[in-house]
Amino acid sequence: MSRIVILGAGISGHTVARYLNQWVGKQHEIVVVSPNARWNWIPSNIWVGVGQMTEEQVTFDLAEVYKKTSVDFRQAKGVSIHPEGDTSDARPFVTVEYTLPAKAGQQERIAYDYLVNATGPKLNFGATEGLGPDHGHTVSVCTASHALEANHQLQQQVEAMKRGEQRTFVIGTGHGTCTCQGAAFEYIYNVDHVLREAGVRDQARIVWISNEYELGDFGMGGVHIERGGYITNGKTFAESLMVERDIEWIVRAHVKKVEAGKIHYETLDGSFHELPFDFSMLIPPFAGVGLKAYDRGGEDITAKVFAPSGFMKVDADYTPRPYAQWSADDWPRTYQSPVYRNLFAVGIAFAPPHLISKPMQSTNGTPINPAPPRTGMPSAAMAIAVAKSLRDMLAGAEKPTHQASMARMGAACVASTGSHLLRGTAATMTVFPVVPDYRTYPEYGRDLHLTFGEIGLAGHWMKSLLHYTFIYQAKMKPGWQLLPD
Prior knowledge:
The chain is α/β, with parallel strands linked by helices. The protein is 24% helix and 25% strand. Keywords: FAD, Flavoprotein, Oxidoreductase.
């Protein structure tokens, strides 16, 4: 019997656990380690952040779900990886520290035969002074509890406007190197929708601020789509949505500092600006969670296993090259560590070989460019590929048997406003592939038959359907295997 340890129980980690439990759970030991007691369907945090869903509707208790399976769940956080064991025992192990209240602070050594790093990101609010809900002046929708607080503050603004007061809302990214523009994009439209429903939209100034070179970049270098027989770009698509809703926008911006009621930011031309606000939701930059790695003799090998960002190196080509020489082939396929064959990283935990968007920096040398998105559909796709490879390697395969390169997969994003069945709309976009491949698709880098955008109520219904489908699937209820990931 082998033991597979999975660090993290978000979309990617929980997906690996679900499939391994189904395929090899009776023959092998599966251990899931997560610092969080509850699973969170993060895309629906947007609706929690505007008061249209509760925290209970987007989360569930992990221990209760795993209790019905063969998975051994430990509520703890990963501290260090020891892929060569130590001087007393050559078997690889991880050190974890419990966050379960009854065992809080206790450390444990868990040996493994295979390790999957699916820790997700550290929400690096500290990279920008004054950013974030805990020690700063902005709110967030990155977790369900953050979204609850965001809605609490949003409703206070709505009440003030009902008394006749004017308010300024600023939503976007809180640093020059942020990713996840899509979440902020969806949130700004939901705030606009809520203010219209409350009858106070005329008293609100809404401003989008982001590190994108142009609207519609989304960290993917922008996108071209075919609509009504015409080729248009993501910039036109996104700007049209903003203009229709009277939303202002600021792009090419690095938020340097946030004070109470004032955002300080720098733009690509090197100039510095201030933007007053009454309510602001800014996505933080992401970083690795801080896992360390040690060899058998106890020497620190963190730099060998992880990139400087803290994300884990996998089978990508990390050779530094100028932007013009970047290739779709640089992106990982199997997510296996190049130095330890029983070590994998999926979701946000793997280190991308480089950006997807063109790298930019201001005249002051400040990087202002989106980081590559690695959430949602891509996370699930790479998790399933790794689970299949582990299943086959447990059965004797010498190397990973399945691949899921972001340069060979598509993704869909639905930005839906409101959760009512008949009131609301959605901007739906699909891209294929996620990472442009200009060798296969020389004109636009993507297959335009599979890359499109639509606006309307149908996408709104799809977002609701996906919410309930994925919650059902993640709870591993009967027939979950038949549902698409």
